[in-house]
Structures are given as C-alpha cells and as structure tokens.
C-alpha cells in the first residue's frame, strides 16, 4: 500500500515533458497540444493540465530543458580550448550539432525563436545565447567573444536550412571570415 499524498505515477510529469519535446522534434511546435502530448506520453489529457499550467508553460519548460542540454554539450565538447584553437573547436562543435545532433538543434532553434514574441521565452533564449558568449569570453576578449558567438549562432541557424552540411574546414573559414 502506498503512503497518502504520494504520486501514483512519479515519472508522469517527466514523460509529459519528454513527449512534448518528441512532438516538437517530429512535427514542430504547432503539433503540441494537451491532447497530442497526452497521447504521446500515454497519460490522460487532464494530467497535462495537472502538471503544467498551460501548453505554453509546458513548451517553456521544454525549451529550458533542450537549451540546457545544448549548453551542456558546449561545455563537454569545448573543455580545454585555448585562444589558438578556439575557432577550430567551435567549428567542430557546430559540425557535430549540424550532423549528430541535427534534430536537437532544430528543436532548440524552433523553441529559441519563441523568445522573439514572448518575454518568458525571451529570458530562456537570452540565457542560452549568453552561455556560448560567456564561455568564449573566458578565452577571448569580450568583444571578440560576442562577435564569434553571434557569427556561430547565425551561421548554424542558416546551415539548418541547407541540404548539405558544411565541412568543419568550411565552418572554420566562415567563423574567421
């Protein structure tokens, strides 16, 4: 017998959140509704409302989760970078995000763009954007770090529209351009 006031399904909230992210991956933000998320997670529709105040609230948390995962990859892949190899290492990271993590990158940018219209999403997007800039500022002068972060972010977004992924060498040339 389970104790009073304990969840019957302690993983339900997490399943709902993962289901929302999977729906965005597969079909885009417009596909995320309480019903679609509930069906994907295998839970009653009321569970979505129980754990999240609204679908935008669910998407906000999904956005924070995805962008946090991407910044975690940033730290892992760029540890030990020095001024003399920063552009090469950043080019390798971008290439990795355009190939091995392409789906996650598409989701991240789709959620990131919600920050253009919604102040809550804007804060999540700004924090994510600041991660690369702040990390680069530990290696490079702040103005150079800000410039490189902006070029990297913009170029990666542009590459997601292309059929062919540029090589690491091509990405490196664009970053130094």
TrEMBL record:
Residues 33-52 bind DNA. Gene3D superfamilies: Tetracycline Repressor, domain 2 (1.10.357.10). The keyword DNA-binding applies. Residues 10-70 form the HTH tetR-type domain. It comes from the Bacteria. The keyword DNA-binding applies. GO terms for molecular function: DNA-binding transcription factor activity; transcription cis-regulatory region binding. Keywords: DNA-binding. PANTHER family: HTH-TYPE TRANSCRIPTIONAL REGULATOR PKSA, HTH-TYPE TRANSCRIPTIONAL REGULATOR RUTR. This is TetR family transcriptional regulator. It comes from Amycolatopsis iheyensis.
């Amino acid at each position: 017998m389970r104790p009073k006031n304990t969840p019957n399904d302690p993983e339900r909230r997490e399943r709902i959140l993962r289901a929302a992210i999977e729906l965005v991956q597969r079909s885009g933000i417009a596909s995320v509704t309480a019903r679609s998320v509930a069906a994907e997670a295998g839970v009653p529709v009321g569970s979505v409302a129980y754990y999240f105040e609204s679908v935008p609230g669910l998407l906000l948390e999904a956005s924070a989760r995805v962008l946090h995962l991407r910044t975690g990859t940033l730290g892992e892949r760029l540890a030990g970078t020095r001024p003399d190899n920063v552009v090469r290492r950043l080019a390798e990271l971008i290439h990795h995000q355009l190939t091995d993590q392409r789906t996650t990158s598409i989701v991240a940018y789709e959620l990131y763009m919600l920050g253009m219209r919604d102040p809550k999403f804007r804060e999540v997007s700004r924090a994510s954007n600041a991660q690369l800039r702040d990390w680069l500022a530990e290696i490079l002068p702040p103005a150079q770090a800000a410039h490189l972060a902006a070029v990297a972010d913009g170029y990666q977004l542009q590459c997601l529209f292309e059929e062919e992924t540029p090589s690491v060498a091509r990405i490196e040339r664009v970053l130094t351009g």
